[in-house]
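Supplementary material to the annual report.
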Amino acid sequence: MIGYNFMGKAHSNAWRQVNRFFPDLPATVEMATICGRNPSAVEKAASVLGWKNTTTDWRKVVEDPSIDIIDITTPNDTHAEIAIAAAKAGKAVLCEKPLAKGVAEAEAMVAAVKAAGVVNMVCHNYRRIPAVALAKQMIEKGELGDRIFHYRARYAQDWIADPKFPLVWRLKKEIAGSGTHGDINAHIIDLGRYLVGEIDEVCGMMETFVKERPIQDEAGEGLGAKGGQKMGQVTVDDAVSWIGRFKNGAFANLEATRFAHGRKNHITFEINGSKGSLVFDFEDMNRLKFFSSEAPAHRQGFTDILVTDGGVHPYLKAWWPGGHIIGYEHTFVNTFADFVTAVAEGKSVQPTFEDGLINEKVLDAIEESSKSRSWVKL
Amino acid sequence: MIGYNFMGKAHSNAWRQVNRFFPDLPATVEMATICGRNPSAVEKAASVLGWKNTTTDWRKVVEDPSIDIIDITTPNDTHAEIAIAAAKAGKAVLCEKPLAKGVAEAEAMVAAVKAAGVVNMVCHNYRRIPAVALAKQMIEKGELGDRIFHYRARYAQDWIADPKFPLVWRLKKEIAGSGTHGDINAHIIDLGRYLVGEIDEVCGMMETFVKERPIQDEAGEGLGAKGGQKMGQVTVDDAVSWIGRFKNGAFANLEATRFAHGRKNHITFEINGSKGSLVFDFEDMNRLKFFSSEAPAHRQGFTDILVTDGGVHPYLKAWWPGGHIIGYEHTFVNTFADFVTAVAEGKSVQPTFEDGLINEKVLDAIEESSKSRSWVKL
Amino acid sequence: MIGYNFMGKAHSNAWRQVNRFFPDLPATVEMATICGRNPSAVEKAASVLGWKNTTTDWRKVVEDPSIDIIDITTPNDTHAEIAIAAAKAGKAVLCEKPLAKGVAEAEAMVAAVKAAGVVNMVCHNYRRIPAVALAKQMIEKGELGDRIFHYRARYAQDWIADPKFPLVWRLKKEIAGSGTHGDINAHIIDLGRYLVGEIDEVCGMMETFVKERPIQDEAGEGLGAKGGQKMGQVTVDDAVSWIGRFKNGAFANLEATRFAHGRKNHITFEINGSKGSLVFDFEDMNRLKFFSSEAPAHRQGFTDILVTDGGVHPYLKAWWPGGHIIGYEHTFVNTFADFVTAVAEGKSVQPTFEDGLINEKVLDAIEESSKSRSWVKL
Amino acid sequence: MIGYNFMGKAHSNAWRQVNRFFPDLPATVEMATICGRNPSAVEKAASVLGWKNTTTDWRKVVEDPSIDIIDITTPNDTHAEIAIAAAKAGKAVLCEKPLAKGVAEAEAMVAAVKAAGVVNMVCHNYRRIPAVALAKQMIEKGELGDRIFHYRARYAQDWIADPKFPLVWRLKKEIAGSGTHGDINAHIIDLGRYLVGEIDEVCGMMETFVKERPIQDEAGEGLGAKGGQKMGQVTVDDAVSWIGRFKNGAFANLEATRFAHGRKNHITFEINGSKGSLVFDFEDMNRLKFFSSEAPAHRQGFTDILVTDGGVHPYLKAWWPGGHIIGYEHTFVNTFADFVTAVAEGKSVQPTFEDGLINEKVLDAIEESSKSRSWVKL
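Predicted assembly:
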């Protein structure tokens, strides 16, 4: 694993847990080497997160013949180089989203994994929230009907809604690449493509509501971070809102923001089809709401499905009896279980780097639309 | 109509509205005379509420040959005398709940209406909340299965949870008769009998949490009432909690309280049958939640039925298109629509005085149980 | 009152009830004359709805010197002519929304009421849902902070989501003018302007998902309507989705659709400000959710305000004790109470015809944007 | 660890994870030995769950000088013998609930750990659900006021609501000890004692709704279990319902059932105090609802606290950023973190064996009350 921060914690946990909860996987994971730039930090991470070896040079990991899988959780701007090297070395590659810094990089990555014929996956873990996987199954079985009219989604947070919140690195374009757009809009785009289909055209707007923030006086990060007196420019977007059309004719209406007080990690979507509707909210991620127009008329309504039944709900067999919910990090364990199987069988599973590339194209189109103030075709 | 306070307002509205929204009723209501003890207050009430004549002597109303229906909304301790006189005069009688001050009075009232052969009804308006009427229909159709296991209900309010709230008349036994018991426990008992069946035995406890309160310094009443420095005894119950068994074997678990902060008029029940469950909350009275164990396993969950569809839901045809909710007073209009039909057809509809009598018996049994600290059979 | 259909029923009820529940109004309403084209239908309506006189000629009503208020509930395309005549006759005018068929008509209407100096109001009844009025008060008091970032709203219904639903008049442009756009998008535009401010620019898309529907074989209308075999063109929009900016910099993201299964009259909005957020859903119209970033950190969350407390919540003093909810038609009674006061005092209250005109301009801009596939400034 | 079934899986996970997520604990856990009666099953469990050694003789574990902690997850009837031996051997003891088969056994266990002076804990993991721990903190800070009026709780499941569900071992008294009473009523009793205080008197009823069930034709267990044609006696309770009083005067109203369709692991409680109320539902275990009568009147309502903020909510610092929920097994990790600290510091933390003993006393009193049909004092 290359990288050891927030995603490193989530990924390490998933590697540790995957064989414990999915004991029938075709392979057993060994947590060989964790790599990071700061030697003492990576040592500490290895110890806390359960890795055998450490290194500060990612090339050593990529070249290590005893290693089969390269897991990339580093900042966005390093994904391409590492992934391409890993593919060339014949490793299976799991890469955090967004796949790359732009379409060109992503295309190179897709070319590399194709050329090398290696198993690859971009880690859109939200696809394997059981409720989302159930939504996918229901749509495929036709439970929403043969046509979808609306995909309306929102990813809302509030951690920078206070204008006094300091200028952390995520608010600087040179480091973060983008703000809400690549960080969270990417997720609801991916979910839309997974559940509804490919996108045909987009029209959007982006905004930086708070253009100056206090420069951070120390290395602190996150919600408790404090800023000093000096002000600096925010160079990424605070919110993005866009409309569009899927190739199948459905409306897309999406919004990503970090300025919605009370919304912590509020990934919501509603999908309306010709026979029914589905509603999801990540903050209640063990639930999926379903309306069927085919139910007896006097009993129609949104059914609040508690997606915890191992007998019928995806991924739940690995976990606990019905009514005992799972949490955020389980989505990674579910993802990694499928990836381990894919590696063992030598066959990629969705979402592949190709998916990552298409997501990049959609992100680019929205950004272009926002600048040109016009519709952009994909 | 005899009486003109809170219930007088609700009843008058229902008399005014019933033919407007149920235009196919077999009779048209004329609001003849309103009666109350205070001449100027009753004059004002007549004008605001829409009555033609006023009187301060209820006997004049009962004796008036042009009047067909006597509607009793006076305090509890006067119901029996008026209702019996009205029955003797051959009038149809609609009486606010609780029917009487005790079983003996209630029995006399039942005897009187039977002897006179007049149409009679006790105004348990909550039976005609559309969601409750739908629950009844679903149970009768067997949608909960052939057996009911649990009826768990609560009527919770919070208007006296503050110990400084003054000693209003509803907290004095000589005027109010009882506290939560007759006022609100009566409602959830009636709903239980309506939906589940007759009760076999009970065991309960009653309590006055705040035994002394400031004596009110003026005639004020209600939430904004203010008390002075002098304290007086609270002589009614603040809460009652009881368990019991229905004759069909179902468990009863009920609680009524005025000490549940945040619960304003929180009438909730859950009914669990062998095939499904129903959940209701009066504060969202246009909804009924239904769980069916016969739905496809992957989609099971509580369905949140918005009971506003005139095509299939009881009483809704009279009101608005789907999704447009109705409110508290509509339950009276629905009730009065059925009563007007009953009067026109000369045939009582539930809940009759007989129901009122049985409710009294259950109330008495719980009170006795609370005193004797033992189970009481009905 | 000119007109007697769905809105006629709601308006008549409000006229009947307004003095009953708001007994302190400065004037008492007399329901003089109802006017409609079909003589027998208008006779029946008068009888059911409580009007003294009937006529089939709206000019007679406008010319009647004993009449002070003209209430227009006729189809959209007749509003302007009637309203202008009424204004000229010196009547106070209450007009159903949308104010007119377009900006030009609306401007003429505004000019007419201004020239005549008559009290005027466009009946956007949703402004006087108590929860919405409370939202307005809270925003004005600064409880959301000094800046608003997002207004995200949706008006979703599902009555034509079934492609077999017949071609009723509301789906024909020559009669209805538009589909979701003027019918329901208009409402959430008005609420946005009321709560957040004036709109600066818009970019939208409109769609007719189902372009052909069975021609209705009889006069039937509404949910139970049946179509025959022959097909006809749907000439109005099925859905509209748009993004935009308020003059104060807030994002607008709105959507109106009749293709969202399970959504009956789902008017929802979320407003995010610099200090807090508000969330509303019309299907639970007695509730307002509020998040304050200033609450103690360990207790922050959306507070589910049951807006039924007559002591502190707008309009509720007229109705019932806390916890006893009100319904759809009460929003008209509240509106009419304010209008009666306005007429008595000779001073218009919001939303005036001017508001109706601005709403028309926004509607026009969105339609233009949808056609030109570009942003349109207001 | 002695035992390896459902609880064995949850406990093993907690031992594995505790130092990963609580890296600052004063000790590091080593998972030495797992013990079970079936040699091949225990081998498999060790491998899947991550234990170094296995044995089929619990005495060997207790006598092993390299082991500091004995974790007992075996069936109920073996707790006492193992725990007493472990205490005598000077080990810290963590014991699954219920502590023992009855009061006598529990008293012996308490005596043993006291005599040995060893750290001891009964594993009521629900106390360390962050929302429950927050509730405790809020009550202690006085946020519900100085007096509690009601503790109303329910633990409802539905896994045997179908009368055809087979006669699994949990429905046989000789193996399971009791049905809902010891299994789930025990949990809401413990939560009541934790949050509200000690119980003074109880009055309850117990019932076996379905008295005969098909005998299982194979070793299967759980929801998918199948029964044959032959019927056998159910010898445990299906439901228990009881009322009671806390020593501080609060009402207790509790119910445990396995016959509530739609309720999977529905642990709910509502606590009403003189200044506010708290509501919890385990199926949404990351949330706590709080009503404060001290909030500004126009904004009062239940606040839906998403208990995921590591900065202010108990145990959350160990997990993920706000809005990323945790699941069932995290309650064990939180519990074990506190237990590891307790062991390192040589000082027991709640709930101790003493708590387990008092819980047994309450369970016994309810059972006695149900048999004698009378109130029982504690």
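Residues 308 and 324 of chain D are 7 Å apart (CA to CA).
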